[in-house]
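Students often ask why we bother encoding 3D structure as a string. The short answer is that it lets us treat folding as translation between two languages. Here is a chain of 53 residues written in the first language.
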Amino acid sequence: MPAAQQAASEHDHLSASYGKVMEAADDPVALRDTKFAYGLEVVLDGLALRLPR
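And here it is in the second language, the structure alphabet:
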């Protein structure tokens, strides 16, 4: 994980994402919720791209 954090350090959004996951790593419920929220955002973003404009 330290190598991934170092690689992400140049990208603010990605670095913040790693920080959230590391904070939640001590609490399995929080980790699951964080991963679910991320997955939901990805799916919704993909669906939004398919909506007619």
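Translate back mentally: The chain has a mean pLDDT of 82. Keep this in mind for the problem set.
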